[in-house]
Amino acid sequence: MATVVLVVIGLAHLAYGLAIDSVPDEYFWFTVFGSSFREAREYVSSYRYSDAFRLVSWLLLACLAAYWLWSRATVLHGHWRWFGWISLLVWLVWLTNAATKGDGAADAIRFLTLSKVERTYPSMFIRSYLRYRESSASMFVIPPVPEPARPSIADVVVLIIGESASAQRWSLLGYQGNPTNAALSPWREGIVALPVQTNGNNTARAVPVLLTGRQPEFAEGVLTYLDKAAKAGFTGVTLSNQTRFDIGDSFIFTAFSQRSAQFHQLQPGAQWDEALTPLLARALDSTPVSEKLMLTVYTYGSHPDVKDRYPPAAAQWPDAYDNSIAYTSRLLAEWIARLARMDDRRAVLIYISDHGLAFPACGGSYVHGSTRSAYEVPLMLWSNARFRADNVAWWAQWQERAQQAVAADGTLQFTNLLVPFALDDLLGMAPASKLPAAPMLAVASQPLLYPPPTDTRQCEPFTPYDVTKALQQNY
Ligand SMILES: [Zn+2]
After folding, report:
1. What's the predicted TM-score (pTM) here?
2. For 79, which of 1, 20, 327, 419 is 20 to 30 Å away at the CA?
3. Average pLDDT over the chain, rounded to an integer
4. Which one-letter DSSP state was computed for residue 445?
5. 150 CA → ligand 1 middle, Å
6. How far is the CA of 464 from the centre of ligand 1 (A)?
7. Ligand 1 center to residue 200 CA distance, Å?
8. What are the counts of helices (DSSP H) followed by strands (DSSP E) for the chain?
């Protein structure tokens, strides 16, 4: 019995480790309880063959070991019995010692969850599951929201959360393979774009950072930009084409559905992102001039089976990933066109992808990973003429910031925390601009909450970023 449990836990541990390059933490459980059956199937089909081979080899060995233990089990009842009793005694002494060393309940919990051996794989699962349970209980708690520090500087704020798009494939940022952002070039006058480092190489990690501006600690409840927007007098509308979280509560969906005045969830993964367009149009059209709007659009982007994320007509090139990014650009251009008509209001659109992907040269296909391309995401701001006229200095800062986004050695200077900071500014929640003014790069490059592994690989030859591209005629 115990061996079966160990084999199953070990297998899940290894599978997650190989796919995400991380030991299972509470985000493992968010992913497990958060993914629909359909998405799980796509994950499995995008799994690397080499990793699958390693998994199967491990499983075979583990099963052999379990079988060997079973066949020898009688040994423990024979004259080897003393060996079993001694090891049991050693464990008991050690556990009692661990439990009595400190005080009270906290230690009892630590004792039960074997914190002293938390780095061994079975207890890691128990610990992370307990943390997940704790998180899901307190994620509904909204702490007191501070009063706005000053009037908002925009009337309509649209945040588009992308999925699995890497900055390394944005032609707007220098990629020369295919013109993946060509659809956006008519809007270049109002666009600022830069590559940033993301906090976390998977959705469950990166999106909570965008929502809260930090690594959420659930104990005292969590404050998100949606709560701040409501406090600042904005109507919160959230549209989502991400897979619906049926089985468990995940922070991301709990936050979006609980904290938005209106929340629309499309049929999970069944439609392309263009299904969001009529919903977006309705949200914009039904907002009177006197009302402020915080609209969040959570796209399905390029996730996880890239070729299924765009209609067949959008397959322009052999590379499915480039096609999906071009498709997203086309939708962004359409949505900007709708926003641009609201010239009686100050309108801003922010696009950021949650994380990128590992490219085929490194991952075998387009998969989650810990390559540079998985950690470098595109951040784009567009604003209408009225907003720019009203906020000349703020906008100029962004243009300057974009020029500083890539250091001489090619490393990125900013993280995705720029987004929650920008939202604080736009909503009027920050007393002074929370955004680092140039050239305060030290402030800007907030330490990563989830730093990439030190051996982050650059597998695919890639053209260095060119942040001046956005100003040019075509990209
Ligand atoms: Zn994601």
Report:
1. 0.76
2. 1
3. 81
4. S
5. 34
6. 24
7. 9
8. 18, 7
